Amino acid sequence: MVLEATGALAGAGGLGYAKVRAPRVYWSLVGLPVTWGRFALSYRSTMDVCGLTVQPSRLRAFVTRNLTRREVLPVPPKVRRVRGTSTGLRVTLRLPAGLEPADLVAASERLRHAWGVHAVTVAETKPGYVELRMTGYDVLRRVRLPRGARPEGLAVPVALREDGTAFVRDYRKVPMALTLGANNSGKSVYQRNLIKGLARLPVALVGIDCKRGVEQSAYAPRLSALATTPDDAASLLEVLVGEMEDRFDLLSAHRVSDVWELPETVRPVPIVVLVDEVAELFLISSRKDEERRERIVTALIRLAQMARAVGIHLEICGQRFGSELGKGATMLRAQLTGRVVHRVNDKQTAEMGLADVAPDAVVVASLIPAERPGTAVAADSSGGWAKIRTPHTSRDEVVAVCRRFAHLVPDLPALDPYRPSLGLPAPADAPPVESAPATV
User: CB under 8 Å to 210, separation ≥6 — which residues?
Assistant: First the structure.
């Protein structure tokens, strides 16, 4: 009896420890079977009380009433597939006539409480079918990307969604993006994860860090160009505009409209421009800086409007990005399709990033707690949004990856004058050392 009691206590203690320290293990052993059973037993009644049922067709009502002699009941979405995962439960539903995915999205909070899960998100898989993604526990508390999430093509997994899937920054689908966030919100860590993934891909990385390069200078081995002052940024952006025009000439010569339609032998390498703090490019301290500002804004807007077709992409970061920055700020923001908003200091900043693409996400972005750095709301022009969190990545990790893949720096002669210097300065009595040319 004592042994049995001791074993039961040890088992209960082990489950309690697993619930806190190893939530995936606890979910797989306890949470998943319990939730699956609760879902199977209460599915029809839950859908009914949540208003997610419709009246059956006349033929079905006639058959039910006259042949089977049963009461005609409202019809819920038909369950096509139920699949358990290490983080939750996936349910594929076939929507009956009269329901749309938005109806399930509006009821997701009620479904979460009914089935006792941490979160319920709705994803449309194809017309007439949706997938309920139930998350059994808070996967954003300890972020760990799925094992299969690796950089590929121009897609880089940089964060974890609330439903347990990876948030992928795909430059072919979303060529231009804006990232906002206050100090210590995790905005810099998000950019580190982005650079860490892009460094492994055959792309050219161009950094614009007007804080004298304190953020991006450490990644110099993998950068094709780096501007650390507003004057350098203005000239570098004009060079990129010239590169864009040359690539348009190439497209015209081959009579295609997109860089990916070119043969691989002549296709230019993609370029990703990483702007660390966009406000430094807009703000001026005297009247003589207005001309430089106009050059910068004009170049950024031209790149944002047209550069996608030639494989040049913008990744702009800042603490705040509104019309108070000056002429052209709102026009530039409208061209940035992807939006990632971390914790902000005021609701107006969240509205600047999300109100025009996903108004429902503004409140969520405004309530991100300070003790959850790296948490953000990601949205795009499709209206969909998701809560994400970036795994912590140290600067030394990113620097090591940049040095490891320094051989992937492409040969772009137009950017050679802006190529950051590598290594430490040599002593005064040491002979000069010539740097090796960059190779593809």
Answer: 227, 228, 229, 230, 233, 276, 277, 280, 281
Out of 135, 163, 194, a domain closes at 135
Mean pLDDT confidence for 400-414: 92
Q: Please check whether residues 113 and 227 belong to one and the same domain.
A: no
Which residue, 208, 214, 210, 267, is CA-closest to 239?
208
Within 10 angstroms of residue 61's Cβ, the number of other Cβ atoms is: 14
**Token digits of residue 71:** 């009461």
In whole angstroms, what is the distance from residue 284 CA to residue 279 CA? 10
Is the pTM for the entire model greater than 0.85? no
Q: What one-character DSSP code corresponds to residue 406?
A: G
Residue among 50, 48, 93 at smallest CA distance from 75: 48
The answer to whether residues 412 and 401 touch, using CB atoms and an 8 Å cutoff, is no
Statement to judge: residues 166 and 239 lie in one domain: yes
Contacts of 102 (CB under 8 A, 6+ apart): none
**Burial state string for 21-37 with b = 16 or more CB within 10 A and e = fewer than 16:** eebbbbbbeebbeebbe
Write down how long the chain is.
440
* pLDDT per position as a tens digit, 294-336: 999 999 999 999 999 999 999 999 888 877 777 888 889 889 9
Whether residue 348 sits in one domain with residue 266: yes
Query: Would you say 154 and 270 are in contact if contact means Cβ atoms under 8 Å apart?
Result: yes
Q: 399 lies in a domain?
A: yes
Residues 101-148: pLDDT tens digits?
A: 888 988 888 999 999 898 898 888 888 899 999 998 888 888 888 877
Same domain, 101 and 160: no
Residue with tokens 């409209």: 257
Q: Would you give the end-to-end CA distance of the chain in angstroms?
A: 72
Please give the single-letter amino acid code of residue 178: L
Coil, strand, or helix at residue 172? coil
